[in-house]
Write a structure and sequence with these properties.
By secondary structure, this protein is of the alpha/beta class. It has helices spanning about 105-120, 150-165, 170-175, and strands at about 1-5, 25, 45, 50-55, 60-65, 75-85, 125-130, 135-140. The strands form two sheets. It has a five-stranded mixed beta sheet. Strands 1-7-6 form a three-stranded mixed beta sheet, with no helix packed on it. The chain is globular, with a radius of gyration of 24 Å.
Length: about 180
């Protein structure tokens, strides 16, 4: 399991994270992490038609902005070597109050509880270092279309998450038809 926690700076007690825009480039880069890129190497502009445009190693890239819905917030996280204490972990057996037993536990019940305690996986902490509301997907000399795997992947993931966790307000708001 993973737990996302906001990074608290030492200078202030309140957590504050910058807002960034992740970029998905149509190339393979064998680096994962921040880059100290100057405007000389990465400068995003808008052309006369309002399209996002940049050059990467001499190649023209055109970008498509994929927005997250208002009910979601993107998070850029950094892995840590810390774990949540078992008492705070959502998968710890002691996190919720147990219902009072109505029958005497059998030997099978005791064995099942022992197996559950052995299966408790530690919850690793990820620190939130930035947030985002949209993603820029880039294509070589053309704006990525609806069929682009990254555009489709983000849109399908959002639709799937909405179907799993969304509230159906529109159906509840309609009055029944006679």
């Amino acid at each position: 399991m993973l737990s996302i926690q906001q990074l608290v700076s030492k200078s202030s007690a309140s957590p504050s994270v910058p807002k960034l825009t992740p970029n998905i480039l149509p190339c393979r880069i064998n680096h994962s992490g921040p880059v100290n890129a100057s405007k000389r190497y990465w400068h995003v502009e808008e052309d006369e038609r309002g399209r996002k445009m940049a050059y990467f190693r001499g190649r023209k890239l055109l970008g498509r902005e994929v927005k997250l819905s208002d009910s979601y917030r993107g998070a850029i996280v950094c892995e840590t070597n810390r774990f949540l204490p078992l008492s705070e972990s959502p998968n710890a057996s002691g996190s919720g109050a147990k219902a009072p037993a109505t029958t005497t536990p059998t030997a099978e019940d005791v064995e099942d509880e022992d197996e559950e305690e052995d299966d408790i996986e530690p919850t690793k902490i990820l620190e939130e270092v930035a947030t985002f509301d949209d993603i820029l997907v880039w294509g070589h000399e053309q704006v990525p279309g609806e069929e682009d795997v990254f555009v489709r992947g983000v849109q399908e993931w959002l639709a799937f998450a909405e179907a799993m966790h969304g509230v159906e307000e529109k159906k509840a708001a309609k009055p029944p038809t006679p």
